[in-house]
Automatic annotation (TrEMBL):
The lineage of its organism: Bacteria, Candidatus Colwelliibacteriota. The keyword Transmembrane helix applies. This is LTD domain-containing protein. Residues 457-516, 667-725 are annotated as: Disordered. Keywords: Membrane, Transmembrane, Transmembrane helix. It comes from Candidatus Colwellbacteria bacterium CG10_big_fil_rev_8_21_14_0_10_42_22. The chain crosses the membrane at residues 21-42. Residues 685-714 have a biased composition (Acidic residues). InterPro entries: Lamin_tail_dom (IPR001322), Lamin_tail_dom_sf (IPR036415). Residues 124-266, 307-477 form the LTD domain.
């Protein structure tokens, strides 16, 4: 069949198209070869890889169907217009799922697409299709079985058309995160794309669109999103701290409509304080609206008649009205749900016109007016500056009498109530960290601090009502009676009344030993083991163990065990004694003081209340005359200077010598990663100082010990006889910028050139990139059991993740090494080095072209 236009026409068309079909590829291939040759010559042999990548990309552009089935069509079936028309554009159906992936994928750096883009190239941001919309750089809540490692990133398509992300690249400042989006990564109009770190458990209840490796730094970080043409679509630049987000409360950083950033302001949803896969929360900002205009007008009217009372040197309070209850931590659903209750202990109504309630920094300024009077209770509730103060607000089911703005600080806060003449009526001061000197709790219970009497406070002891762990506009709960009976009990202060009474005087208080200007410890009893992180089943499962080697034991009558901020206050009774080990376990204020408690299968001797802090904590044991018996100080962050671990192992810190500690070395028993009521792991013994004179005679008998004897140096620190071998450790090799994919392939190799085994568990490896200073140092601590034999190597794998683990290494680290070079330090302790001259540096290794 010759077709409607004749055979000659169709033969001409085929000739033209054949010529055109070869002309364009010939032009492209010739051009790229010339560019490649020039780049190879001028680029000092750095061009071939880039030339090859460009050539392959161009080849795929010209022959997009390579290796695929090609349909042969009969040109007789088409009109000239059809023959000469171009191929229609690719159309993505908007009826498809919001983001289409054939499978969840991790970064595939072997694909040449995307490797042309790198963080440092920057460029002008497009910001017209895809935005970096939300970042959980701080990770997830520990109380929700998440951790700081549970990071995630959300992208949003702000356009009205579907976008194919295939070949796009998301990279962070230090190349720890390099995400190349796989084929089929499509995001529909106004939809979201969720990326979760390491696994699909970082955001409970949400299925990740892509799993990635690498971590976001908490400061001096950056993220850049490039399209497949290496044009910069969006970026987030962090100089110092992040632009928003809350590390302490684990609230995400969200994009605002004006492309600025704000902290997630909503409640906890599905264990997350953020909006993964959903529209962002509203930014809580100080904006001028009709409500603020009204408040401003009222404030200006008040300020024209009043000036704020001075908080400088206040006089003795009159106690005419009491600050009776404070919900300083808010509630579990929303930490902004703070409130304050005032109480009138008299039998007459008191007019509050002109009175003032101020916090330490005057963030809270409440100036009462003619409508404010109090006959028994007055309930004050915090609202946001964007809320309408004329509306009715409730605490649980109780209507608030008045609202205010401002934030009650969790530490170093005060509240002062003044009358119209600026005479001090009542105050709450010296609250300590997390109000530990007053009362109340934050996560997970969020209990209020309640007034016991004029001088004392306690933590709400009830079971809650209406979602509120407190007693708004009603009588306070009965405080726990905190004593230590013989054979068991709890440490802390006591109280006897559930309602404040200005006529009553507090019971005689315990005089606690001073922790200032202390003499050297007597060490007749040791703080021997500490479960400072709790257990895997509950972080509340904290406990201590005391130990003495004195034959016949000791009476503990009048002795005290105190932590740094006296949140833990244990005073032993007249019948209390120690014969070898005694075990003390933390209980909650709502627990039965007379109950029987166990750690694993071991019975507890004493109970106490209060929380061990995970950093900047001290523990001190005093005898009845306040002589220092033993102490644990300078624990560092997560007790890295002492021992023990938090998630996932929750191992205890054990005494390894007079001035030395270690992390529990065993495999655990009955769910306890420690040795309650028994000898510490590793056969470490604490020598009684009264027997130190005999150590020389016993030295021959101890030569068979598997671990070096620990002695106390002049500074009271444990010193091992392997210390001289430190000088024979060196960083032998750094492997970085592996051809192809770096994930799981980077290495740091440490060599022991000495003649003895070196225990590494108290050491650390530290890394500094070329673009950072010592405030940006990255650090990995060696762990229990890490050691390197004489003449052997210890291999650290870097850029490791659950998806791409490091194989055949002695220790894994998620940190990625910069491809341009950097400095690696082997350090004799686990403190961050402060400069290149730091005496704790054992060996340093400079790699790359610096």
């Amino acid at each position: 069949m010759e077709g409607p236009l004749g055979k000659e026409f169709h033969e001409e068309v085929l000739k033209i198209n054949s010529f055109k079909g070869y002309l364009l590829p010939t032009f492209w291939v010739t051009s790229i070869i010339l560019v490649g040759i020039f780049g190879y010559t001028a680029g000092n042999m750095d061009a071939p890889p880039k030339f090859l990548a460009a050539f392959l990309e161009a080849w795929e552009e010209i022959f997009p169907n390579k290796g695929q089935f090609v349909e042969v069509v009969n040109v007789d079936q088409f009109s000239p217009n059809n023959v000469l028309s171009k191929e229609p554009d690719r159309i993505i159906s908007d009826s498809a799922p919001a983001h289409i992936n054939q499978k969840k994928d991790t970064l595939n750096k072997n694909n040449v697409l995307g490797t042309r883009c790198f963080y440092g190239q920057g460029g002008k941001t497009q910001r017209n299709t895809i935005l970096i919309n939300e970042i959980a750089w701080m990770g997830g809540l520990d109380s929700e079985d998440l951790s700081a490692s549970d990071e995630w990133i959300e992208l949003k398509n702000i356009s009205d058309r579907s976008i194919d992300l295939s070949g796009w690249l998301l990279v962070d400042k230090d190349d720890q995160i390099k995400i190349l989006f796989p084929e089929g990564s499509i995001i529909l109009p106004r939809s979201f794309y969720l990326l979760e770190r390491t696994d699909d458990d970082s955001v409970p209840g949400e299925i990740a669109d892509l799993i990635y490796s690498g971590n976001l730094s908490n400061e001096n970080e950056g993220l850049r999103l490039f399209n497949k043409e290496c044009l910069l679509e969006d970026e987030v630049i962090v100089e110092g701290s992040w632009l928003a987000g809350d590390a302490q409360n684990r609230r995400s950083m969200e994009r605002s409509p004006d492309l600025d950033w704000h902290t997630y302001s909503g409640a906890l949803i599905d264990s997350i304080l953020g909006t993964p896969g959903r529209e962002n929360s509203m930014a809580v900002v100080e904006i001028v609206n009709e409500y603020e205009d009204k408040q401003k007008t009222e404030a200006e009217s008040i300020s024209s008649k009043f000036s704020l009372c001075s908080q400088g040197v206040p006089s003795m309070p009159t106690y005419e009205i009491l600050i009776n209850e404070v919900a300083w931590a808010g509630k579990s659903e929303n930490t902004s749900e703070e409130w304050i209750e005032l109480y009138n202990p008299t039998n007459k109504e008191i007019d509050l016109d002109g009175w003032q309630l101020l916090d330490k920094e005057s963030s809270i300024v409440i100036i009462f007016n003619k409508q404010d009077a109090i006959d028994n209770y007055l309930l004050l509730k915090r609202i946001l500056s964007t809320d309408d103060p004329s509306k009715e607000y409730k605490v649980g089911g109780v209507v608030a009498d008045r609202t205010y703005t401002g934030v009650i600080q969790n530490s170093e806060e005060s509240l002062m109530l003044f009358d119209e003449s600026c005479r001090l009526v009542d105050r709450v001061s010296d609250v300590g960290s997390n109000w530990n000197r007053v009362g109340g709790t934050a996560s997970p219970d969020y209990r209020t601090a309640e007034r016991t009497d004029i001088e004392n406070w306690h933590t709400y002891s009830g079971s809650g009502n209406g979602g509120v762990m407190g007693t708004p506009r009603s009588q306070n709960s009965t405080p726990e009676i905190i004593t230590i009976p013989s054979g068991g009990g709890s440490g802390g202060s006591s109280g006897s009344s559930s309602s404040p009474d200005i006529e009553s005087s507090p019971e005689e208080e315990t005089s606690f030993c001073s922790q200032d200007d202390l003499s050297s410890p007597t060490h007749i009893v040791y703080i021997n083991e500490i479960a400072w992180a709790g257990s895997a089943s509950s972080t509340n499962e904290e406990w201590f163990e005391l130990y003495t080697s004195i034959q016949g034991g000791l009476s503990l009558s009048g002795w005290q065990l105190l932590d740094k901020n006296r949140e833990i206050q244990i005073e032993f009774g007249t019948d209390d004694r120690i014969d070898e080990y005694i075990l003390l376990k933390r209980i909650l204020t709502t627990d039965d003081l007379n109950g029987s408690y166990f750690i694993g299968g071991v019975g507890v001797d004493y109970t106490y209340t209060g929380v061990l802090q995970n950093e900047d904590e001290n523990l001190r044991l005093f005898d009845a005359s306040c002589n220092l018996v033993d102490e644990v100080v300078d624990v560092g962050s997560s007790w890295i200077n002492i021992g023990g671990t938090a998630s996932p192992d929750y191992k205890t810190a054990e005494r390894a010598g007079v001035g030395a500690w270690q992390t529990y070395l065993g495999a655990g028993e009955n769910g306890v990663m420690g040795t309650p009521g028994s000898e510490n792991s590793g056969n470490n013994e604490i020598e009684d100082e009264s027997e130190e004179e005999d150590q020389d005679e016993d030295q021959d008998e101890n030569e068979g010990d598997s671990s070096p004897e620990l002695e106390e140096d002049s500074n009271g620190n444990g010193e091992s006889d392997t210390n001289e071998e430190i000088l024979n450790l060196e960083i032998e090799e750094v492997i970085y910028d592996v051809e192809g994919a770096d994930e799981g392939q980077e290495r740091i190799v440490i060599k022991n050139n000495g003649s003895s085994t070196v225990i590494l568990e108290s050491y650390s490896i530290q890394y500094l990139s070329t673009t950072g200073d010592f405030t940006n140092l990255k650090k990995k601590n060696f762990e229990s059991g890490h050691q390197v034999e004489s003449g052997e190597e210890f291999v650290i794998g870097l850029n490791c993740s659950g998806a791409i683990p490091c194989e055949g290494v002695d220790m894994s680290w998620s940190q990625a090494l910069g491809n341009t070079g950097g400095m690696v330090y082997l350090v004799s302790n686990q403190d961050a080095v402060i400069n290149e001259e730091d005496l704790d540096i054992i060996h340093s290794f400079l790699y790359g072209e610096i």
